[in-house]
Amino acid sequence: PQANNTNTSTSPRIWEQVGSDIVGTAVRNRGGFSVASSNNGKIIAMGSPHNNDVAPQAGHVRIFAWDNTANDWTQRGSDLLGEAEIDRFGWSVALSGSGGTVVCGAPLHDTDDSGHVKVFKWDETLSDYVVWGSLHEGPGYTWERWGYDVDVSDDGLTVASIAPSGWEGSMSSARVWGWNFTIEDWSPMGLNIEVDR
């Protein structure tokens, strides 16, 4: 009988670490609280929502790319920083398929915890991530906490976020934005998706 190429091995597959540990920049900044990866796994983002570089627990996000020469991870671009005390920027993070677009959430942004979402795009000329468009937050109701979780499409042109507390804490909400080439900015795609809690 003809032999087949079926692998009948029952040996378990083993994960092997790639490169060195990527650690937070300070004690208790919660580096790695959120992580995201490009499709090929060669660009990763790490959120540290308790980082104190700007203000106590303002948070930051760092991007790393695999360096074949160094055979290790190296930082790609500058730190992406929260804006104010207890923003918790980096609570959530998402990368597009290429790693060229990064979305960051800061659910405690603003004094009323309405939340905050920011989108950054890689600029080859500057060799850095720069703010892309004016998408900075949700509708802005008290306690909504936009940015609690975020996501981005493979092509980086569609962004989503949830607000777990909802308007005045009464319901949870989700919103989707798409890049509008006409106005060169983000536009809402439909109405909020709301669920009573």
From TrEMBL:
Pfam families: FG-GAP_2 (PF14312)
Entries under InterPro entries matching the protein: FG-GAP, Gal_Oxase/kelch_b-propeller, Integrin_alpha_N
Domain of life the protein comes from: Eukaryota
The UniProt record lists the keyword Transmembrane: no
Record's signal peptide: none
Membrane-spanning residues: none
Keywords: Signal
Presence of keyword Ribonucleoprotein: no
PANTHER family per UniProt: GAMMA TUBULIN COMPLEX COMPONENT C-TERMINAL DOMAIN-CONTAINING PROTEIN, UNNAMED PRODUCT
Protein name, entry field: Uncharacterized protein
UniProt organism field: Ditylum brightwellii
